[in-house]
């Protein structure tokens, strides 16, 4: 399972957001990109999108992370 945790913090705008993306197998032999986002310290919204192959899901995961990094999120390791 791949897991990417991004944050965007700007104290001047009172912004403290997180965006978590993971690549997970489904029960039906597909792969899903599971996304969770929201304000740091609170529960977030969750969305999962299924793909036929792991390669397709990985491509989508990389595209999403690139988009978020361009929007000002930074990569953080989550333990």
What oligomeric state do the depicted chains represent? single chain
CATH architecture, by name, is Single Sheet
End-to-end distance: 14 Å
| Class by alpha and beta content | alpha+beta
Helicity level: 10-25%
Summarize the helix and strand pattern as letters. EEEEHE
CATH topology descriptor: q64v53_bacfr protein fold
The stretches of 5 or more residues where confidence is low (pLDDT under 50) are none
CATH class category: Mainly Beta
CA gyration radius, whole angstroms: 13 Å
Output the number of helix runs: 1
Largest sheet: 5 strands, antiparallel
Mean pLDDT: 92
Cross-sheet strand order for the largest sheet: 4-3-2-1-5
How many strands?
5
CATH homology superfamily: WGR domain
Question: How would you describe the shape?
Answer: elongated
How big a fraction of the residues is strand?
over 45%
Number of domains: 1
Concise structural overview:
This protein has 79 residues and is α+β, with helices and mostly antiparallel strands.
Task: Throw out a few tags for this protein.
single chain, about 80 residues, alpha+beta, five-stranded antiparallel sheet, elongated
